[in-house]
Amino acid sequence: MSLVYELIELDRSWLEQMSLLEHRAQLSPWTCELIEASLSSVARAWGFVDRKQTEPCLFGFILVGLVLDQAEILTVSIEPKNQRQGLGKALLSGVINVLKQEGVNSLFLEVRQTNTAGIALYQQLGFERIGKRKNYYRLNNANKNTSQHPFEDAWVMKRVFR
């Protein structure tokens, strides 16, 4: 069965689905409490919903922090079985269009240095590397009792809307 998706703005009623999806899709997932706290402050969320199902099903979402005319992607999650099908690109493109229409001038994000697929996608969408955050991501497989370094650096990327 193919997906029939619709981009919608998500409110707190989607919190449980967002949290479950985040945990299925991410190496270091945000907690439900952290997603909720972000939505209660300066963040907004958008997602792809499959309306063909009896209960609308969330299979991708993005959480974006907004301050004045700048935005930052806080987390992006796509259902693992639907990854590598262009949905991440479609989700980001749709949200970028919404942000531009709302007067946002620039969009920032951090990405694991080893996430080559994510970096390539962001570059396709016009993001440029502007910096690096040392030891930004925790490695789940790092053992505190070994000499393995338990953190990974992140690239900071930015896209300016013209």
Commentary on this structure:
The protein is of the alpha+beta class and 162 residues long. The chain has one domain (5-160): Gcn5-related N-acetyltransferase (GNAT) (Aminopeptidase, 3-Layer(aba) Sandwich), CATH 3.40.630. It is built from 4 helices and 7 strands; from the N terminus they run βααβββαβαββ. A 7-stranded mixed sheet has the order 1-2-3-4-5-7-6, with helices on both faces.
Describe the structure concisely.
With 162 residues, the protein is an alpha+beta fold. Helix content is 27%, strand content 38%.
**Number of structural units classed as domains:** 1
Q: Kindly report the name of the CATH homologous superfamily.
A: Gcn5-related N-acetyltransferase (GNAT)
Number of helices: 4
Q: SSE string, helix = H, strand = E?
A: EHHEEEHEHEE
Numbering strands along the chain, what is their spatial order in the largest sheet? Answer: 1-2-3-4-5-7-6
The share of residues in extended strands comes to 35-45%
Which CATH class?
Alpha Beta
Straight-line N-to-C gap: 39 Å
Sequence stretches where pLDDT stays below 50 over 5 or more residues: none
Classify the fold: give the CATH topology: Aminopeptidase
Mean pLDDT: 88
Rg measurement, Å: 16 Å
What can be said about the biggest beta sheet? Answer: 7 strands, mixed
Apparent shape: globular
Q: How many β-strands, per DSSP? A: 7
